[in-house]
UniProtKB/TrEMBL annotation:
<dbReference type="GO" id="GO:0036376">
    <property type="term" value="P:sodium ion export across plasma membrane"/>
</dbReference>
<dbReference type="InterPro" id="IPR005899">
    <property type="entry name" value="Na_pump_deCOase"/>
</dbReference>
<keyword id="KW-0732">Signal</keyword>
<dbReference type="GO" id="GO:0005886">
    <property type="term" value="C:plasma membrane"/>
</dbReference>
<feature type="region of interest" description="Disordered">
    <location>
        <begin position="235"/>
        <end position="257"/>
    </location>
</feature>
<keyword id="KW-1003">Cell membrane</keyword>
<dbReference type="InterPro" id="IPR024981">
    <property type="entry name" value="DUF3887"/>
</dbReference>
<feature type="domain" description="DUF3887">
    <location>
        <begin position="85"/>
        <end position="138"/>
    </location>
</feature>
<dbReference type="GO" id="GO:0015081">
    <property type="term" value="F:sodium ion transmembrane transporter activity"/>
</dbReference>
<keyword id="KW-1133">Transmembrane helix</keyword>
<feature type="transmembrane region" description="Helical">
    <location>
        <begin position="161"/>
        <end position="184"/>
    </location>
</feature>
<feature type="signal peptide">
    <location>
        <begin position="1"/>
        <end position="29"/>
    </location>
</feature>
<protein>
    <submittedName>
        <fullName>DUF3887 domain-containing protein</fullName>
    </submittedName>
</protein>
<dbReference type="Pfam" id="PF13026">
    <property type="entry name" value="DUF3887"/>
</dbReference>
<keyword id="KW-0472">Membrane</keyword>
<dbReference type="Pfam" id="PF04277">
    <property type="entry name" value="OAD_gamma"/>
</dbReference>
<feature type="compositionally biased region" description="Basic residues">
    <location>
        <begin position="248"/>
        <end position="257"/>
    </location>
</feature>
Amino acid sequence: MRKKISLLFCGLAVTLCFTGCGSSKETMAYDEATVQQSTEFLIEYCASMQDDTVEQWETMTDFALESQLTQAGLPFTKDGFLGALDAWQSAEKECGEYVSHGDYTYEASKDELQVSTEAEFADRDAHITFVFDENQYLDSMTVDAEYTTGEILKKAGLNTVLGMGTVFVVLIFISALISLFRFIPAIEAAFKKKKDAPKAAPAVQPEAAPSVEEAEDVTDDTELVAVIAAAIAASEGSSSTDGFTVRSIRRRPSNKW
């Protein structure tokens, strides 16, 4: 019985040991002095740089920029360094000129290290956060301005008014557009009526009356006169044309001879 109880306690102890080992989190090893030196250099450089400094760095090639950082012995990546310069310029526009900063706090995980500090600017305070990768190279830097509760509520109210105003403007526009739909049938009927209207018939010009041929003067046509006279005499049963004289011959319009 005692052996069974001992084995049970041993099993529980082993289980608790494995559980404790599994729940422990591994953190990356870092040199606090080296990290602090890098952050101090970056803050001092950003605070003293001119307005066109960022443009000069951005116009450099990747090889030249990385060579400059390597020669200076700075543990900064290209993107991390340029991002830090942009973030600092934006912070100065929002918070004013840099004054000082406080102590650093370190939060390490398995593959990154976060270093943060409270900074004082001319217009408002800000929270600066540096993120280093597993090789202790600067990955990013952010500067978050700190607002009072009243400023936050004011900004939230302005955003709410702006959003609701935009919604109401869009709804009014949609309502006005829908109200114009009642004119569509009248416009469509007008276009249809115009399309179906008969076109004016072209004016018919009167045809020219056929020209009446001038009667031919056949008074001198003796041969034709003799033939006609003989035909008339034959129709009357006379063998001679002495009883009449053909003086003129005129063509009748209705006859075709």
